[in-house]
Amino acid sequence: MFLYDGVEVNIVYQPKYCLINNKVSGLEALTRTFEGGLKIDHELYLSNLNNRCLINDYTILFIESSFLELNRNDLLDVEVSFNIYSNQLLDDVFVSKMLSVRKCYKGIVTLEISEKEAVDSLRLREVVMKLKCHNIKISLDDFAKDSATICNLLSVDYDEVKVDKSLIDMLDAEKTKMFIKMLVGFASDVNLKLVAEGVESQCQVQTLKELGVDFVQGYFFAKPTSACELALV
């Protein structure tokens, strides 16, 4: 937990699961925000920080606080991922601070990029290469939703792509199955980790297995929980 701009921010973690060995393969760090003891709209809060040019400082504090929690609870070698906006990576100060904070955690660190606005893909590609040289992996989040398109996927050397829940919810459709199977083949060919988000039923799990998807995340497996609770599992 940490305080920022008068708001209490609680950190929770949602596990990612490997369907091959049925084990946790990593954690996604998320935040829950409270003001005056009442939960507030998190997306609105982040949007407000972004509009006030505070999102970079907030993100660094969030990541730093998460590393402290994980280390304190002996979750030292777990892969952990954080959500950021792609335009944050175009800020040299943010990137420099990210590289410095990265040294506080010895496990695998992944930044999940969500594109809320158009960015210079060439510049983004250069920054991604720099981060990867410092042992930071890059994931394309919310694929198949809004602006997260095939062009985004092809323009940057991502380590992982996360298929959005909106597509997983359409698994009953044959065209959706064909598209995901195509993605599985592409991911395998280019050594890209494919994760299905928002998995909420055994039926979806079975279908994803049949399509060759190895990594999943969603409420069917686990809801976001604290580092302290994860350490007890």
UniProtKB/TrEMBL annotation:
<dbReference type="InterPro" id="IPR001633">
    <property type="entry name" value="EAL_dom"/>
</dbReference>
<dbReference type="GO" id="GO:0071111">
    <property type="term" value="F:cyclic-guanylate-specific phosphodiesterase activity"/>
</dbReference>
<dbReference type="InterPro" id="IPR035919">
    <property type="entry name" value="EAL_sf"/>
</dbReference>
<protein>
    <recommendedName>
        <fullName>EAL domain-containing protein</fullName>
    </recommendedName>
</protein>
<feature type="domain" description="EAL">
    <location>
        <begin position="1"/>
        <end position="233"/>
    </location>
</feature>
<dbReference type="InterPro" id="IPR050706">
    <property type="entry name" value="Cyclic-di-GMP_PDE-like"/>
</dbReference>
<dbReference type="Pfam" id="PF00563">
    <property type="entry name" value="EAL"/>
</dbReference>
